[in-house]
Amino acid sequence: MLAAYVLATVGLAYAVKQLVYRWSHRISRHGRSLRTPPGTLPVFGNGLKFLLLDRQSLFDWFSEIHNDVFGFETYEITVPTLPPGIVISDPEVLEFVMKKEGSEGFGKGPFFEERSWHLFGSHGIINASGQLWKTQRKAGNRFFAGSHLQVLVDEVFPKFWEKARDELNEAAETGRVVDMEELYLEFTTRVMGRVAFGMDLSNSHPFSAAFDYASDLTGLRFQNPLWKLNYYLFGHKFRKAVSIVKSFGNEIVRLAVCRRENTEGDLKTEETTETVSTDDGGDLVNMLLDAVPEHHVVADSAINFLSAGRDTTANSMTWTLHLLLENPHLIQYITDELPSVGVHNYASLSTALTPKSHAVFLETLRLYPPVPFELKQTLNTSGMLLPDGTVLPHESVLVWCPYAYGRSKKIWGDDAYDFKPERWIDETTDITNSTNEVKLKVKSAAEYPVFNGGARSCLGKRMAEVMGVWVMSESLRNWEFEEVEQLGRRRSRNSLTLPMEGGLKVRVRKKAPAM
Ligand code: HEM
């Protein structure tokens, strides 16, 4: 009896606190409340939807209500226990939010940081702010300058692609089925291991499994209002995975410091017997050590860079190949413009020389953005006013869904759901001197937020594009692929990024060498 009384009192106190909080943090537009999505419940709001739907279904839901109900109108979503939130879909509003990144406007805020800090730490570029973020951003900018990218493409990619090439050749001879998602992930893990850490890192390293597990659960925290309870009651495996990730980060920094001190004898990790290489173009961890004195910050940062670049690029390659296999006429469309083997280098993969291949890549990311969901919070203590008149109190959560932006009929037209790389191409024919100019169209970050925009735009955008086109070229020039099963519309599986559920299983045939 007493227990029931205590429970009821606690429940009532909580409900009153929530009501007062919501009233004092009311979101409004021109003095009125915002509309809410169809199916919003009186007490639970949209909480059950977030709790029960998998991430893919949630992205489909965002796309449907954008196209069928709200269009560009900003609407409100409510989840019990969470701060009030809105969903934005209007490129003009998004442009404003991107421009106002920072403590006077919008930022990751406690909502994002609380959910992600176990995995990403609070010091790495993903969660850092102020001077700490600026220093890492500067080091990253320096790293991704043209000369490093050129070394990456011309020396690091071919070296790490050898394993993929051998595996594909062997599969072509034996008829073995290959999971291209795994093959691409192995390649991007090795490239990013080299970029971020200056070491040869395989996807079979225990770090990778631990990282994958921790990032899948971190992704789910954004949907589950009860994630803390989960963490404290059943978080043992998650804590173990995070500790593997952290120790790996610390070990990387130790190795980098040894390398700087030229103590070659120490340059072997516990799990890998391969010696760390220092030749091809330097690595980020070194640049970070130049810029940041605290080793634990460098460790967080290096892990952040690896996570930003590894899965995103592998996702994009997998979806690109899948969409090309579904639209085989496009394979010829791009192989015609790809450079021959002898000149397959950084300079030959510019957007000017390979516009159609870039178009295929960008079109894939429009439909399958590897970062499908974005979230910010109002950091300005006086709140913010959006260009559409929405008034946001301090700490309101803003959400936008790049997946839904990519499928917006208002932005892309009625064929928004179709894969049409031509929409990225400007083709002009000059009949006087019979020339044909093919150029890649540019879209603003606010209409195409796949790489984010503003101060926190993706640092690896050019690297991702060139890597995507390079891998497309290597894959399509040398082998023919056939999906093992026609599975209909492919879905993504729960994760922080957008991996393909079930992977991409193919049979491979070697192509005859081009004459
Ligand atoms: C197709 C591949 C990629 C996509 C779609 C992508 C997308 C994004 C997006 C949406 C953000 C903003 C995330 C946020 O709000 O915090 C971001 C940030 C970032 N990306 Fe990428 N990314 C890709 C590849 C890469 C690669 C290869 C790197 C190289 C390491 C990289 C490095 C970063 C970094 C360091 C940030 C944080 C920037 C900052 O907070 O200042 N990304 N990326």
From TrEMBL:
| Cofactor(s) required, per the database record | heme
Q: Does the keyword Iron apply?
A: yes
Give a GO molecular function annotation for the protein.
oxidoreductase activity, acting on paired donors, with incorporation or reduction of molecular oxygen
Query: Which positions does UniProt annotate for heme binding?
Result: 458
Keyword entries, A-Z: Heme, Iron, Metal-binding, Monooxygenase, Oxidoreductase
Record's superkingdom?
A: Eukaryota
The cross-references to PROSITE patterns, in alphabetical order and at most eight, read:
CYTOCHROME_P450
- Signal peptide segment: none
Q: What is this protein called?
A: Cytochrome P450
Supply the source organism's classification: Eukaryota, Fungi, Dikarya, Ascomycota, Pezizomycotina
